[in-house]
Amino acid sequence: MKTLVTIWKKELRELFFSDEVVSRLHKVSDVDWVTAGEPYEAEQLLQDIGSYDAVLTSWGSPKLTAEIVAGAHKLQFIGHAAGTLIPYVDPLVFRKRITVVNANMALSKSTAELTLALMLAGSWNICSLRDQLRSGIWGGNGGTVNGLYGQPVGIVGIGEVAREVIQLLRGFHTNIRLFSPYCSEEEARQLGVTLCSLEELLCESRIVSLHDTLTPATRGMITREKLQLLPDGALLVNTARGALVEEEALWQELSSGRIHAALDVYHQEPLAAENPLLRLPNVICLPHIGAFSSYWKAQLGAMVVEDLARFASGLPVLRGITEERFLRMTHR
After folding, report:
1. CATH code at 72?
2. CA-CA distance, 179 to 182, in Å (whole number)?
3. Which of 31, 124, 218, 250 is most buried by a 10 A CB count?
C-alpha cells in the first residue's frame, strides 16, 4: 500500500504526527509526504493521485474534486484528520467504493467539553459576577444563581457533539429534552433523553444548546418567534453554527436582557470588534475555539492512522463515513 499525506501546514504536521504515530503509519504503508510549509494545490494532487492507494488530508489540503477522484485509479482509502468532509471530498468517492473516515470524534469531544464549560459559566453568571467584583460590587452574599445541577436542558440536533454533551451532563442530574428527526425512540431511551418538538423544548428548558448541522433546512431555524418561547432567564448556548439562529432576532432578544447566551460561533467570523454582542453583559462571546483542546487535536492523526492500519489488515474501520451520512451534512 502507498499513501500520500497532503497535510502541508507545519503546525498541523507537528501536532498530528508524533514520532509514535509516524512509526505506526510507516509500518502499514509506504508514505510520501508533501513538502511541509509549501502550499499543496489541487493541480499537483491531480498529477500525483494516480500513484496512491490512500490519501490523508486535513485543514488546508486540496479538495478531492470529481476530476481528481476520477483519476485516482488506485485509491481505496481517504483519511481526513479533521471534521467535516464537505470542503474536501466530492461525493463521487462513495460511488467508487472508496473507504472514507474522519477524526470528527476528537473534535466532538473537544467541542462538548467547551459546551459544558459554557453551560456552567452561563448558568453561574460567572462573567457578570467577575465584572461586578472588578467594579467594587460584592455580590456573593444572599442571592442565588440557576446553576446547572438539576436544570431542564434542551439539546437541538443529535450528532457526535450532542451525544458527548449528554454523557457529560449525566453527573448533573439534568432533565434533558432532545429535538432531532434523526433520533429514534430507542436511541432516546438509551441516551436517557426525552424526544419532543422544538417548540416544547424551547418552552420547557432553562438551558438550550444548539448542535444541529447547518443546512438549507436548518439555516435560521431559531427564529424570533422561537426565541420568544424561551423562559425568562434562560441560557442559549451555541457551539454549532451561528447561522442556525436569526442574527437580528438574537440581538434584539438579548438586548432586552430577558435571556442570556454563551456563543462560540457567529454569522460572520472573525467577529468584528464593534459587534454589539460584545457589549452585552448577558452574553459570553468566544472566538470559535470549540476544537482548541490540545489533547484532542493531537489525536486527529492517530485516529486516521489507526483506521488506515485496520483497513490495510482487512478489519472494519472505526470512524467510517457513509454516503448517507455525508449527504446529510449538505441538505435535510
Report:
1. 3.40.50.720
2. 9
3. 250
Asked if 6 and 145 sit in the same domain, the reply is no
Which of 128, 188, 135, 180 lies closest to 156 in space, CA to CA? 180
Structural domain includes residue 158: yes
Same domain, 255 and 134: yes
Residue 83 gets which letter from DSSP?
S
- A 10 A CB-CB count for 181 gives 9
* C-alpha cell belonging to residue 45: 494532487
Task: Determine the structural domain holding residue 162 and report its residue range.
Answer: 106-285
**Among 224, 258, 288, 332, which one carries the catalytic annotation?**
288
Closest CA to 29 of 79, 70, 68: 79
Indicate which residue of 38, 199, 248, 269 is catalytic.
Answer: 269
**Is 288 tagged catalytic?**
yes
> What is the edge-to-edge ordering of all strands in the sheet holding 99-102?
30-33, 2-5, 54-57, 77-80, 99-102
Amino acid at 266: Y
Q: Which residues pair with 200 in a beta bridge?
A: none
Give the model's confidence band at 330: pLDDT under 50 very low, under 70 low, under 90 confident, else very high.
low
What's the Rg (C-alpha) of the chain? 22
Q: Does 87 lie in the same domain as 231?
A: no
For residues 230 and 236, the answer to whether their CB atoms sit within 8 Å is: yes
Statement to judge: residues 55 and 16 lie in one domain:
yes
Question: Do 62 and 118 fall into the same domain?
Answer: no
Residue 64 lies in a domain: yes
Catalytic residue among 24, 163, 206, 241: 241
Give the neighbor-by-neighbor strand order of the sheet with 207-210.
194-195, 175-179, 152-156, 207-210, 235-238, 260-263, 283-285
Q: Is the domain of 132 the same as that of 279? A: yes
pTM (2 decimals)?
0.90
pLDDT, tens digit, for every residue of 59-74?
A: 999 999 999 999 999 9
| pLDDT score at 143 | 81
Domain count, the chain: 2
55 located within any domain = yes
* Max CA pair span of the chain: 71
pLDDT averaged over every residue in the chain: 95
